[in-house]
């Protein structure tokens, strides 16, 4: 699914769902793996519905560096609905 406006997505729907998750969560909530029945450890951001996947396994370090340089400027948050810039990481 896309949350990008150039694909005519309504980012406000995503933002409202995130806020709904955040309202429902409290500190100390534990997530349980349905298959193993074991506790899944999470940090505060994850408990509030934000799961970051920064590692890019498909690009070289130089491309990742360029993307981070470019999109840090392109994705500057100007309104509440703008996407926050999160830099990519090279996994190595």
Short description, anyone?
The protein is mostly helical. The protein has 3 helices and 2 strands.
Question: What does the model show?
Answer:
The chain has 92 residues and is mainly α. The protein has 2 domains: 1-51, no CATH class; 54-92, no CATH class. 35% of the residues lie in helices and 4% in strands. The chain contains 3 helices and 2 strands. The chain has a two-stranded antiparallel sheet with strand order 1-2. The model has no long low-confidence stretch (mean pLDDT 79).
Strand-helix topology:
Elements: H1 11-24, E1 31-32, E2 39-40, H2 44-47, H3 61-74
Antiparallel strand pairs: 1-2
What would the keywords be for this entry?
single chain; 92 residues; mainly alpha; two-stranded antiparallel ribbon; 3 helices; 35% helix
Structural class label? mainly alpha
Largest sheet: 2 strands, antiparallel
Strand content: under 5%
Count of the separate structural domains: 2
Distance between the termini: 28 Å
Radius of gyration: 16 Å
Shape verdict = flat
List the helices and strands in order: HEEHH
**Would you tell me the overall average pLDDT?**
79
Number of helices: 3
Low-confidence stretches: none
Total beta strand runs = 2
